[in-house]
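Good day; I would like, with your permission, to put a structural problem before you. What I wish to show you is a protein chain and, alongside it, a tokenised description of its three-dimensional fold. Please examine both parts with care and let me know of anything in them that strikes you as inconsistent. Thank you for your consideration; the sequence and its tokens are set out here:

***
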Amino acid sequence: MEGINNQGPNMPTHISLPNERVEQLRMIAKAKNTTIPEVIAGFVRAEIEKGTIPAAVPGIDVASDGPTITIKAKGFEATLPMNEGPTLADLLKGSAMSTSDPERKKRWLEGLAALSGVKLKRAGNGVKLVSPLTGREFPLNLDVAADLADQIDRASK
């Protein structure tokens, strides 16, 4: 029997599946050398590409007005210059976090923070956006952060 227990925004959600489906997900993950959450994320992304659902991350609004991009989510708001959208997108995708060039990472982080006040912190299996307005942190799983990065990239064009 399938059930969903949603524990609120940015909180893990419990989904009950029959044991047979869970085992099939494990088999898929093993065959692809990945994890069950990544298998499910791949399914979601495939449905986005097919047009089944919109590409926007639920609960996060990304808008551009020409010179700036504004990101709003529950308890979080930040505005950054349009030309810094791709930088934040790169950071969210993890390319700067995993770069072998620490100086490049430092320039990206310091440059973005200096221009917009938006800070990005690594946190466990994710990142936290830090609002320059409120100081509030908005946690994102790395997979969802990559989707938000795509949304910001689209707004940057």
